[in-house]
Design a protein that fits this description.
By secondary structure, the chain is of the alpha+beta class. Helix content is about 25%, strand content about 20%. The strands form three sheets. Strands 2-9-5-4-3 form a five-stranded mixed beta sheet, sandwiched between helices. Strands 1-7-8-6 form a four-stranded antiparallel beta sheet, with helices on one face. The structure holds a DNA duplex.
Length: about 270
DNA sequence: CGTTCAACCTGGGCGC
DNA sequence: TGCGCCCAGGTTGAAC
């Protein structure tokens, strides 16, 4: 997602609008009118990612230090540089100066996403080290062991905790544990060093591969690229969404269970319980 | 500390 | 066709 819109860096914001964005509970801060006012005529310095958030860095403009626009897409949010699928689910439109500049649209069907403008301290409070562990693309076995070695939680539930490691979602937790050969119900404290190394390695690998394949698009209303194309990583899902199908490794039937109110998919035969 | 539940929302799919 | 239910790549706070 970040890569898809990285090209807006250097552009000057002509206007920002927030149609149909909920203000309460606080999913947009400050109020839309204030936010639009603060962003107008500012320049995009860079587009960053912090865990699952897109963070648009606004070049300093002398006044306040509010220069981090953090967008959290949650379940159905898309960042688009083309016409959105429907006009009624558009939550933000950012227009740029210069002829032929395509506007950036935040489209969010379910409307669970958030849009907030932060100063340095605010950004840190929202997605600093207190809220986010190391990024999944670079996490190490030591990182995981240090944070989870004494935990009684089920490993799959723990991997979804962004304070442990940032960026793993429900699909990727399943795929990471399948490739690590570990049962998602395993209690963290029972895992050995070698298993944490395996999980960390597969986390880096699965996430990097998913990025390379432009994400997972399931059905036609999930993730899309900035130019509204489907990703391809769903074709490589080995267990996610495959309840009842045969495990690609051993042929056993893939199971679906529920952990912490989320679906978990795994192979009961080749994923070992620690 | 860890788990469960409800809430925030919309919409597709299914059984009846 | 309609209705009620379940489900969905996420996060948070309250209750136990």
């Amino acid at each position: 997602m970040r890569r898809g819109i990285a090209g807006i860096a250097g552009l000057r914001i002509e206007a920002v609008a927030f149609p149909r964005s909920r203000v309460r509970p606080i999913s947009i801060l400050p109020r839309p009118a204030t936010l639009a006012e603060r962003l107008r005529d500012r320049t995009v310095a860079e587009v960053h990612r912090r865990g699952k958030r897109i963070v648009i860095e606004i070049a300093p403009a002398g006044d306040d230090g509010q220069r981090w626009l953090a967008i959290e897409p949650r379940m159905t949010g898309l960042m688009l540089l083309v016409e959105p699928p429907t006009p009624e689910h558009v939550r933000m439109v950012m227009e740029f100066m210069g002829r032929g500049r395509k506007p950036l649209t935040f489209w969010d069907r379910r409307g669970l996403g958030t849009i907030r403008l932060f100063d340095d301290a605010g950004l840190d409070g929202a997605c600093g080290p207190h809220k986010h562990g190391p990024d999944g693309l670079v996490v190490t076995g030591d990182d995981l062991m240090k944070r989870l070695g004494a935990s009684r939680r089920a490993v799959k539930v723990a991997l979804l905790d962004q304070r442990v490691v940032a960026g793993i979602g429900n699909i990727y937790a399943a795929e990471i544990l399948f490739r690590s050969g570990i049962d998602p119900r395993s209690r963290c404290r029972r895992l050995k060093r070698a298993q944490w190394e395996a999980i960390a390695q597969q986390t880096r690998r699965v996430l990097a591969e998913a990025v390379r394949h432009e994400g997972s698009s399931i059905g036609d209303e999930t993730y899309r690229t900035a130019d509204n194309r489907a990703g391809r990583f769903q074709r490589r899902h080995r267990v996610y969404g495959r309840e009842g199908e045969r495990c690609p490794r051993c042929g056993a039937a893939i199971l679906r269970i529920v952990q912490a109110q989320r679906a978990t998919f795994f192979c009961p035969a080749c994923q070992r319980r620690a």
